[in-house]
Amino acid sequence: MSKLLNKLDTISQPKVKTLPYLTTYSIKEFWDKIVLPTLPSREVILEWNILLNQYVDLINSILFLRCYHNEQPKKYDYLRRGFLSSVNNGEYQICYTDNFFALYFQKMAIDDFCPDLDDFYQTMMLYKFPLRFGLDTSNERAMSAIKKGKDPQVQKYGWKLAHIFGCKDNSYCLGSDSFKIMDIINKYYPKGEREDWLLINGLYVRNLMVPSNIKQFAIAHFLRFVNPFNYFLCPKKDNETNDVCKEIAENKELLSYAYLYNLKRFGEPYKHFLKRAMVDISYMPSLNDFSKIGDMKLTITTHTKSVAKAVIPIKNCKPNRSHYTYSNVPKTIVPKIQINSIMWAKEYLTNPNTSFRKIEQSAGIKSPARGGGFIAKKAINDLGITADKKGILNSRSIGVEITNATGKYLQTLLQIQKIYNL
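Predicted structure:
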């Protein structure tokens, strides 16, 4: 067995670091404490960059496109994951997949593994590099040329892949012109009809004739998709809460910081990648902005359980009750130190007239007279707050209380002080 196939067969080992339970307060702090510990080494990223740039220029190489992977059940016949097309009678091939495919590359890079070019190319040519992992449909399996592989188990520990420059961005830049990549794909590598694929030597294959200058767009898309230059592990949407956006992995400032970090870390090889991936950097910040962006205030709490989303006022709205959201509250799991829990803790410590039921009701949680208040009580108790502390900050400054506090209660007070500038 080749080294690459052996690695793919054991791709979940060693396991990735578990997303820590942590609150950070700036982009730089989030990067240093959450992202940085999972970044691959500089050396292995450069190895992958060289390998991928050589691979895409080889005859008949398969360029994977991230598209045609999402349909409603009634339209499953239009899913195309694993559907293979030969372009220009064997000049190169294209195959459709989804973001799970890129996780194999990130996991190998994290594990400090990069195969040699011959091993990688042969594995691709034999259609043994896995298409993806996870659920699929019988509609796809019936005609897929490439099989699924084993789960790298990155998501299991709270992570997802965050691309710095999106594979489907509308800004693929060639000279002074900008192109929408899905317009290119829909025109030259279309979804087509299932009947377009013919069974040849045991594989369903479609032949496409495409102008030779279009291949550079497929290469750019593929490099954005799988090159470790262009992504990092970030908390999944259900494993983080923050005070600025719906999902931190898509935060513009964080992605700008990642771009500048790579620019500083890799220099010319990274610039070459950006050019070949058709990235328009004219709108990106300069290295002079690196520290400024890093210092931007951003409160993010990470956790590994799918717990309640944060209770946060929608930006630019007055903080009345109708502007708060609270969703996905499990019946038996209560968040630990999250923005909503800290808000509840502040209310409990500063208002001697509050109650657990009132706190739940203010968050939009049904809290009946009998049996109500349990969620808020457990969340607040988990922060080290006991019943005798209710309203304590109404008669005593937080500074004095911090002086006498220990353990979880001390950490809670410090967060309240920092978040609310008390």
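Summary: Residues 51 and 94 are 18 Å apart (CA to CA).
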